[in-house]
Design goal:
By secondary structure, the chain is of the alpha+beta class. It is 46% helix and 15% strand. The protein folds into two domains: 76 residues, no CATH class; 154 residues, Beta Polymerase, domain 2 (2-Layer Sandwich). The longest helix is centred in the N-terminal third of the chain and has 26 residues.
């Protein structure tokens, strides 16, 4: 704890201090409490209030994504602002983006929730998802697959899917490959804004124990480096070889067993009915109380 602040960084209880002069023979100087007492200014208080508001909004947005299956950070922010601040204040915040939590802040709160509720099962799930991603990418090798997202970074939680970029100028050839594998799938179009222009991309959704989303790109886009909407950093696509290296380094025991048996144990626990088991299986009061206890405050 420093002279100019407490653990919360705002105010230190006043106290008497005695300063000795080591360079002169002058007697000790006695400072009054008023001399060294540092009070929080109105600007400090406003900053603290803004930080607390951002934290509460991040926690509520994370809860929405974890418990109520809200998919997008932006949508979670909007709903959280309306619930915590009311409709009027939520509209005002749209014009002050610095008052809203970043996607990275929400992700951190989301991962804390996942760790709290899921414990060691997160690492077990991560290994299983990476192996399923590897097998899928091996089957789609003709389309230069690249793994991105939470399975790549390790930030998985209950409800996470496997995100893979594939590259082809023929959606029909990709669909033929999926049908040859015997995989059921659905396709849709997604409108994405890039460089002030809107582009339409095909997405293919399939189920292989875990939900998988294939984002279809033109072959020339393999050289294009996209940036994450969470932290703004370049998105790294993991190739099949890179994913195998990651499995060896981060899951050495599980990977060795998989290489020997070519099977994943206890896959039934990750079937859809169990993977997406929600907190609604508990009573609403018990679920909310656990979250409140974890964050130390009402969301």
């Amino acid at each position: 704890m420093g002279l100019f602040g407490t653990d919360n960084g705002w105010e230190e209880p006043c106290a008497n201090f005695t300063t000795h002069s080591f360079l002169t023979s002058q007697p000790p100087i006695h400072h009054s409490p008023q001399t060294l007492c540092i009070k929080a200014t109105p600007n400090h208080m406003k900053t603290k209030q803004r930080w607390n508001r951002r934290k509460s909004l991040a926690q509520e947005a994370a809860r929405l994504m974890y418990e109520e299956d809200v998919k997008e950070y932006f949508t979670a922010k909007q709903i959280a602002a309306r619930r915590l601040l009311g409709q009027g204040n939520a509209k005002a915040l749209r014009h002050r983006p610095h008052d809203l939590p970043s996607n990275g802040e929400i992700r951190e709160a989301l991962l804390q929730l996942a760790s709290f509720h899921e414990g060691e099962q997160r690492s077990v799930r991560l290994f299983a998802m990476r192996v399923i991603a590897l097998e899928t990418m091996q089957a789609l090798k003709d389309f230069s697959p690249g793994l991105i997202g939470s399975v790549s970074t390790g930030h998985v939680r209950r409800g996470s899917d496997i995100d893979i970029h594939v590259f082809t100028d023929s959606l029909e050839s990709l669909e033929a490959c999926l049908e040859q594998q015997g995989w059921s799938y659905e396709t849709d179009e997604v409108l994405i804004r890039k460089n002030n222009t809107f582009c339409t991309y095909q997405h293919v959704h399939l189920e292989r124990v875990f939900p998988i989303e294939l984002s279809v790109h033109e072959p020339h886009e393999k050289r294009v480096v996209q940036r994450s909407s969470t932290d703004g950093k370049p998105i790294r696509r993991l190739s099949t070889t890179s994913l195998q290296a990651l499995l060896r380094s981060e899951h050495p025991i599980e990977w060795e067993e998989y290489v020997l048996t070519q099977t994943l144990p206890n896959l039934e626990q990750w079937e859809q009915s169990n993977t997406y088991q929600t907190l609604a299986d508990q009573s609403d009061n018990e679920s909310q109380q656990r979250i409140d206890d974890f964050f130390g405050k009402k969301l």
